[in-house]
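debug: dumping io for the single-chain case to check the tokenizer round-trip. Nothing else runs in this session.
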Amino acid sequence: MATYEGKVFTEEQETLVVKSWSAMKKNAAELGLKFFLKIFEIAPSAQKLFSFLRASNVPLEQNPKLKPHAMSVFVMTCESAVQLRKAGKVTVRESSLKKLGAVHFKYGVVDEHFEVTKFALLDTIKEAVPEMWSAEMKNAWSEAYDRLVAAIKTEMKACSQASS
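debug: decoded output
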């Protein structure tokens, strides 16, 4: 079982995450975009973290680079959650945790950004699978997201120590 600071990612949590991700996967591109639009709605200043948005004067939903980026982040986050219990730790497929940490460090991502992202993620999932949504599902996704963020922050810390 995957443990994290004394907590266990249970079989029940895994089931809820896997079931909801299976229902969402086919709409990952649209859901990813919704997810990012929610982030920017809550925290418009977060747009400055993305070079491809800083120089853009088209509406967010029409930016040609946002949708692919949003989908890749959404899929990576969800896939990380799905495999958490089986792998016993956070793993990401397309990018290494080291790279994720380095990128988040380089662009100055802080705790508040991760909190806004968590809220937007949970809200996106709730809207995507309303018939499945429950307090237990919210807790399962929260736990999986918190573990991913903890792993990214560990790598960010390593970057900050290497650069000082």
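debug: round-trip ok. Residues 135-163 form the longest helix (29 residues).
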